[in-house]
Design brief:
By secondary structure, the chain is mainly α. Helix content is 53%, strand content 7%. It has eight helices and seven strands. The strands form three sheets. Strands 4-3-7 form a three-stranded antiparallel sheet, with no helix packed on it. It is elongated. The mean pLDDT is 85.
């Protein structure tokens, strides 16, 4: 729009001052304003694309302006094409790696003659695992965080993890009464873990090594003990954000009595 308006104003000025311009040659001074604008915009678009039209410069000023626009358009268009090409190459590279892994999995399952049901389960779980790039970022995904000074990382952990842990009364009291010890705990004993859909966080009889807080999504726990198999406690329990599970692992040697996904 800006180039088109400038081009038309230059043509009108040339017609009044030099008695020759592209406006006079095309008889645009006798056309409607909409036609004048459409013609100017058409000319401007042809400078940014490999196209042509009947409008050409009629004097030195118009020719100079035309050259300037062509140079700017060449640089802009080349940069845009380069950026799009790089983005497409990166996307193809990511998709190629995904397709290679899924193709290898397909051949493996086919050669082992796995059942259709098991193949479908493995295929769905594998697809979810490959889609982990869409999940929220965790500390281990950001390598530059490891370069931060210890004190600065402690401040970061305190701001990120305290709102989650302090939903538990013990950690809330620890933060209030012994903040320095709480900061050490955040730096040395807290880690983030992503659990893709259909993958277990822990399984039955597995040794417990800590308490788990749900930050986002829903964690489903199912009790696997035989004595509760026919009771309401055998029903799956949904844990929403800011809820926790496996607290006994903090105080005693613990083995899980169910599985969580």
């Amino acid at each position: 729009h800006f180039v088109a308006c400038t081009w038309f104003q230059l043509g009108r000025w040339s017609a009044e001052s030099l008695e020759d311009s592209w406006v006079l040659r095309g008889n645009l001074d006798q056309k409607t304003a909409s036609y004048q604008y459409a013609t100017s915009l058409h000319w401007a678009l042809t400078q940014f694309t490999p196209a042509s039209m009947e409008v050409v410069p009629a004097n030195t000023f118009e020719r100079t302006f035309n050259i300037t626009v062509v140079v700017v358009a060449m640089i802009t268009f080349s940069s845009l094409v380069s950026a799009i090409t790089n983005a497409m190459n990166r996307l193809q590279s990511l998709n190629a790696e995904r397709q290679r892994q899924m193709s290898a999995l397909r051949r493996y399952l086919g050669q082992r003659r796995c059942s259709v049901r098991l193949t479908a389960r493995i295929w769905g779980c594998s697809a979810n695992s490959l889609n982990q790039s869409k999940r929220r970022l965790h500390e281990q995904d950001v390598e530059v965080l490891a370069l931060l000074p210890v004190a600065l990382r402690a401040d970061l952990y305190e701001e990120v993890h305290t709102p989650v842990l302090c939903h538990h009364p013990f950690f809330a009291q620890l933060n209030t009464s012994y903040n320095s010890s709480f900061r050490v705990l955040l730096c040395k004993a807290v880690a983030e873990r992503a659990v893709p859909q259909s993958r277990e966080l822990f399984t039955n009889a597995e040794s417990g090594d800590g308490i788990f807080f749900v930050v986002s999504g829903t964690l489903v726990f199912t009790d696997s003990r035989p004595e509760v198999a026919r009771t309401p406690r055998a029903l799956p329990v949904d844990l929403e954000p800011n809820m926790w599970i496996c607290e006994p692992a903090l105080w005693i040697q613990w083995k899980h009595v169910g599985h969580a996904t």
